[in-house]
Amino acid sequence: MSGTFVGMPAFPTAAREALGDTQLRRNLAHATRTIRDKRAKVVAEVEEWEELRLAGAGVKEAALRDLATHLETLEDSLTRAGATVHWARDAEEACAIVASVTKAQGADEVVKVKSMATQEIGLNEALEADGIAAWETDLAELIVQLGEDLPSHILVPAIHRNRAEIREIFRRRMGAVGRPAPDGLSDEPAALAGAAREHLREKFLRAKVAVSGANFAVADTGTLVVVESEGNGRMCLTLPEVLISVVGIEKVVATWADLDPMLRLLPRSSTGERMNPYTSTWSGVTPGDGPQEVHVVLLDNGRTRALADDVGRQALRCIRCSACLNVCPVYERVGGHAYGSVYPGPIGAILNPLLNGVTDPQTASLPYASTLCGACFEVCPVRIDIPSVLVDQRAAVVDSHRDDRIPKPEAVAMKGAAWTFSSARRLARAEQASGLAGRVLGRFSRTTLPGGQAAAGRLPGPAAGWTSARDLPAPPAESFRAWWLRTNGGTDGGQDGGGS
Amino acid sequence: MRVALQITCVNDAMFPDTGKAVVRLLRRLGVEVDFPAAQTCCSQPMVNTGYLDEAVPVVRAYVDAFSGYDAVVTPSGSCAGSVRHQHALVARRSGDPGLVAAVADTSPRAYELSEFLVDVLGVVDVGAYFPHRVTYHPTCHSLRMLGVGDRPQQLLENVRGIELVDLPHATECCGFGGTFALKNADTSVAMGADKARHVRDTGAEVLVAGDNSCLMHIGGMLSRQRAGVRVMHLAEILAATA
């Protein structure tokens, strides 16, 4: 009953559409600014933040370096603690495991803890096709699910909605799938949360099976960790008889002590809180307490592909905090849907191509959905150098087209530029030509930029993308190189231009 | 000290006045710069679009032109960032150990203009005079790739007659992003529109930055809006005298 990203257009097209949505622009600008100001404030409180980032990156890097060993340790510890461990190569296998465990209980519904891994594999849709209803219990995920919408943010998937829209969704849709919204529901946050609480409570009390992900999986103790704000996750983790957790293999950390930097980095980076309200940890089955049947599905789904990428593997350090989304000037304006994935923003722009490859044109457009401004790297709690990975993934896109029978115009242009730029003599000739073109363009446009430089006017072809909204200076008749040669570096009385 | 000017391809072909300003400024400070005629481009347009193989001969041209200099000064944070942070990557890709070694030698000697003035020459007052209301946009690569910090502001604060006003949300990207400005023109313009709005909010008549490519984008928007704000490179203000 939710939407799907399948068939999304490439980023520039999807972004153009999003940019025209005034409500979206307003909601996002407000929400991202609020959350990044909050983050900046609580991060500034931690004197040794940079050391903490290094420690966090170190924990994840160490786990990834010896991933196979840690995963086997995790499997052993989990099994000893009474959990059943499953291995899933891809989305299809993972969904089939969850469906079969659920059916073995005779259940036709599950309650869900907010989880990116299950969103990634399209679990809800797969279960629905198998006759099993999956109820999202995270408030924002509930809003997205009821609205038959798509998530647009990793942490706050309904960030593109404001409270008036949420009220409308609750009034329209809650009754169809359970307890309806109360009469006279207002758009006050407390009232909306109250309506969600009432709606969800009957699902918590009824469900036999819960599905979660995990923020961390501790190998030496066989402990899964879920970090959340609302307590709805803990309801799912403690009330039902059966718990199935779908965990990406990169979530493993070696030891319990490794959680220390991670649990300090995550809340400050994600919600901008010093500490998150609920941290649940469980190690297999505890007799008489909580779920008595515990399954853990360890998911690959492209992660080993990313691990094999020398530059890109650092993306597997990601702890899904969303700080990079909130600080990204591109994300702030276009929102999450334009990325065509449950992983939007800067991290999505590298993670999707790393997990899936760049053969699909939509995925291949993602590494280019950035100005490489570097704000993401600056805030990343595990120091993922996103700009460098973006550039490397751009190279992967270009390299995947090197054997094309008919090269793209961009490839031809870049080869031409490289040829010109590998010889100063060729460059000087190109500049003479551009100077001539500049004179012609300047004469045609008869406009000047503030300050006096001639403008090029409106240009056709690919340059129209520039001049449709921005003036462009006409190239001056004399390049710097030519001036230097003519005036001997300005010492022959040629100290013209630029003087004031 | 042998000092070379790396003019950058954009300044060479589009903004020669910036280069002339750098020459005039450095000469005033007693530094005679060379302009190695063999120089072309830092290779950033190729690298940032993903054409790493195409970048190899361009990086080779850079090291050929600039080896042997004690310092290479460039009026662009972005190009200095490319030299210091991307040349090694391109050299590794080439598989040529000679190029890897040459890059390891030339890259660390590249300085963005404000770094060169403050760190190498040790001056913050360059004796400039510029009696106008000015706001400064710190470009992303100078800020986050190079870490120039407040060096440009220190230099501007010491300019006689200047009225320097803070730009709101200064550290937010302007939306230029090289080929991003064309590949994702709509998003680029949306970001540029907000930057232009913040510039206008300052009431400044001049927007200054250390990168003409970013200024071409923001200035292009301000010009289209007939905003009454012109853009100038940092070098042009620092070179200005009474």
UniProtKB/TrEMBL annotation, chain A:
Keywords, comma-separated and alphabetical: 4Fe-4S, Electron transport, Iron, Iron-sulfur, Metal-binding, Repeat, Transport
Record flagged with keyword rRNA processing: no
UniProt region (Disordered), positions on chain: 451-472
InterPro entries according to UniProt: 4Fe4S_Fe-S-bd (IPR017896), 4Fe4S_Fe_S_CS (IPR017900), FTHF_cligase-like_sf (IPR024185), Helical_ferredxn (IPR009051), LUD_dom (IPR003741), LutB/LldF (IPR004452), NagB/RpiA_transferase-like (IPR037171)
Record's compositionally biased regions (Low complexity): 451-465
A Pfam family hit: Fer4_8
Sequence ranges assigned to domain LUD in this UniProt record: 72-299
Stretches assigned to the 4Fe-4S ferredoxin-type domain: 315-384
Gene3D superfamilies with a match to the protein in the record: Alpha-helical ferredoxin, NagB/RpiA/CoA transferase-like
PANTHER family listed in its UniProt record: LACTATE UTILIZATION PROTEIN B
Protein name in the entry: Lactate utilization protein B
Lineage of the organism: Bacteria, Bacillati, Actinomycetota, Actinomycetes, Propionibacteriales
From TrEMBL, chain B:
UniProt xrefs under InterPro entries: Cys_rich_dom
Pfam family, one: CCG
Residue intervals of the Cysteine-rich domain: 3-83, 134-218
Protein name: (Fe-S)-binding protein
